[in-house]
Every structure is written in structure tokens, then in C-alpha cells.
Amino acid sequence: MYVFGDSIVDDGNNNFINSIAKSNYYPYGCDFAGGPSGRFCNGKTFVDFLGEKLGTPSPPPFADPATTGARILGGVNYASAAAGILDETGRHYGDRYSLSQQVINFETTLSQLRMMMSGDALTQYLSRSLAVFVFGSNDYINNYLLPSMYPSSYTYNPSDFANLLLNHYARQIVALYSVGLRKFMLAGLPPLGCIPNQLATGQAPPGRCVDYVNQMLGSFNEGLRSLVTMLNNGTHPGAMFVYGNTYGVFGDILNNPAAYGTP
To answer: Model-level pTM greater than 0.85?
Structure first.
């Protein structure tokens, strides 16, 4: 499993780079075996749980110097907190691996794999590997919705900005297909208007989400779903692209909390 994304799936890459977006201290990791690891949560990430379901180990962070040799055969995690689809997204946090840089980092891994197996074996290996993508949140909360730091909201309306993101996204996905990956899962955006980052702006009544932010995300999620449909139309032989309905999952949790247990 190869993981590309942001803090939702970062499992320690930012520990090794010059960034203020780090989580290698408590209370992060308070429920994780071994304590804080660089995951931006109290325990396991979505990727950890996915790996358990698939029977594969959680891939190690690319930036860890120990991620080499046999360790890369089970996959690698390239995700980086504050990263976005656009290179400039999250720059106020310092260093981070943007989508394009994560693709470059994958090519570094690929060079190592070429030295470890034959061409036919590598082709088969890559075709069986799952590539997981979790991107886009920072392009909104750490770019478009910060007009004092980024000009994007003055340059693009929400629909045009979503198209800009999707065009960049599509190019990188196709580039990874061209080097051999065949199984892709692309997660949509969650309701960002409901996260603490946005609630703290005071733009919504207590207990409510920031509606205009959630409405803004519709263009991106609908476009990503359409992109997945287009990629599955036969122009990429042997590939499978899956859309992850993150918004729907989190929306159901917010609207029906009792169905998911009591605090």
C-alpha cells in the first residue's frame, strides 16, 4: 500500500522535516502503542485500520532514513501534514511534501524497487499495490480560506478553484498510472466547515457548522467523483479507480451520532 496525502494519513514524515506541523508529542498518540509517532490523532489513522482489514502492515514514512531495503516491500507512506494538491498550500507551516513532491518521492522508492526485482516482477507487484490518496483539505483551510496569506480566493471563484485543484490532481494520478500503479482510492473532502479550525472563526452559531465552507466543497467532491468515473472509462487499461465518500461518512456521524455510540 502506497499512501499519499496530508495530516489525516501522515504517519511520521513531518517528524523528519523542518515543519511546525508536527504531532510527535502528547496528547497525540496517547492511545497508540508506543505513544506519539507523528500521527495526527490519539491512536491509529484510517490507513492503519485499512491495512488491518487488508492484512497488510502500516507502511513506514518515506522520510524515515530506516525506510529502505526490505521495509519498502510492504509499501511506503508519503503523506505530509499541511500538504496540498498545490505546491504553495501550507507554506506558512514550513517544509511539507506537496502532492507533486510526494509523486517525486514515490519515484525514488520505485528506483529502489527496480534494483530489488526484475521488470516483470515489478510490473506485477505494482499492479497489485493499492495507492491511497487523501488530499484537498489544506488547499481550502490553509490556502483558499486564508485570504490574508494566499491570493487564491481573489483569483478564483470556488468553482474555478476546484477545477484548478482537480486538473493538478488528475495529472499526478495519470503520471503514477504511467509508471505502473493500477489500483487507486481517492478520498473526497470531509465537511471542513465542521472542524475546530473553522468553528474557531466564529462564523457559525454555537453547535452549528460553517455552512458556506461546506457548500464550497461540493464543486471539488462532485468534480473528483466525475474524475474517477472518467478515469474508469477504459482509457487506462487494467486500472481501477475508487472514490471515497468521506463527506457522506462524516455527515452521517454528525447527523446521527447516537448510531455510533455515546460519549
So the answer is: yes
SS (H, E, C) 121-163: HHHHHHHHCEEEEECCHHHHHHHHCCCCCCCHHHHCCHHHHHH
Our CA angle for 185, 254, 245, nearest 5°, is: 15
Strand boundaries in 15-173, DSSP class E: 76-77, 130-134
Cis amide linkage into residue 27, ω under 30° from 0: yes
Q: Rounded CA gap, 172 and 36, in Å?
A: 31
> What pLDDT is stored for residue 262 in this prediction?
66
In CATH, what number is assigned to the domain containing residue 188?
3.40.50
- End-to-end alpha carbon distance in the chain: 33
pLDDT over threshold 70, residue 263: no
- 101 within 8 A of 89, measured Cβ to Cβ: no
Distance CA 25, CA 35 (A): 8
Query: Domains in the chain: how many in total?
Result: 1
Cα 22 from chain centre = 16
Are 135 and 84 spatial neighbours (Cβ–Cβ below 8 Å)?
yes
The residue segments making up the domain with residue 198 are 2-259
Q: What is the distance between the alpha carbons of residues 142 and 150, in angstroms, rounded to a whole number? A: 9
Contacts of 220 (CB under 8 A, 6+ apart): 136, 162, 165, 166, 188, 189
